[in-house]
Amino acid sequence: MHDQHSPKQNHLLNALPVAEYTRLLPMLELVEMPLGEVLYESGGQLKHVYFPTSAIVSLLYVMENGSSAEIAVVGNEGILGISLFMGGNTTPSRAVTQSAGFGYRLKAQLIKEEFSRAGPVMRLLLRYTQALITQMAQTAVCNRHHTVEQQLCRWLLLSLDRLSSNKLTMTQELIANMLGVRREGVTEAAGKLQRAGLIDYSRGHITVLDRPSLEKRSCECYTVVKTEFDRLLPSLHVIAS
C-alpha cells in the first residue's frame, strides 16, 4: 500500500499473516495523535488499543505528588494498551504523545476477542509484551545507575528508531519530565552533545548529526533493549512496501 496513511506503517500490524490483517483492517480507525495528548491516565479504563504509525508515545509512571518519569516509549514498532489483553482493563501508567503523528486504534473488546483466538495475533502480542517489559526494566536500571548524558543518549536513540527522520521536536523541560531529572541536568547534557557535534539543538528542535558517536556515548541499556526486540520480533524488520 502506498497511501499516505497505512496500518502497515505499524510494524506489528505489518507482521501479521494476511488472514489476520484482512480481518482486523475494517475495524482499525485512523486517529491523529498531537503532541502532549494523553491517550490514557493512570487507573483509567482503557477503551482502545493504539498502533502508532508516525507518532511516539511515552509511558509515564506518575507519583502522588504529580512528578513523573518515563518507563518506556512506544512507536511504530508496537502497541499501546497491553493490559487489555493481559487480563486487566486499567494500568498504573499514563500514556502521552511525545512526538506528534498518527496511528490506528482498535476497540478494547475487539482486541480481547482477537487475543482469545489463541492464534498468530496472540503469539505476536505476547512476544512484543516481553520486549516491552525488558525496556521497562532496563529503563529503571538506567535511571538508577547511569548519568543524565547516558540517559539522554539512550532516549534519543530509542526515539530515532521509531521515527522516519533524524529530527525530534522536544523541549528540554519535557525531556527532563520524561527522564525524571532536573531541567538543568538535561541542559548540561544536551550542551555537551551539541559541542561534540553529535546533535544540533535549537528552540525545541533536536537534530541528530552523528548517530554512531551517539551510540558510543550511550550506556549499554540501549543495546540491551534493541537486541531483545530484534530477538523476539525479527519479523518487525519487514517494512511494508
**CATH architecture call of the largest domain:** Sandwich
The radius of gyration computed from the alpha-carbon positions, rounded to a whole number of angstroms, is 18 Å
- CATH-derived topology of the largest domain: Jelly Rolls
Low-confidence segments, ≥5 residues, pLDDT <50?
237-241
Identify the strand order in the major beta sheet: 2-6-4-5
Q: What about the largest sheet?
A: 4 strands, antiparallel
- For the record, what CATH class of the largest domain applies? Mainly Beta
What do these coordinates show?
One of its GO terms (cellular component) is cytosol. The protein is α+β, with helices and mostly antiparallel strands and 241 residues long. The protein is globular. Strand 9 (199-202) and strand 10 (205-208) form a beta hairpin. The strands form 3 sheets. Strands 2-6-4-5 form a 4-stranded antiparallel β-sheet. Helix content is 41%, strand content 22%. The model is unreliable at 237-241 (pLDDT under 50). It folds into 2 domains: 7-143, Jelly Rolls (Sandwich); 147-218, Arc Repressor Mutant, subunit A (Orthogonal Bundle).
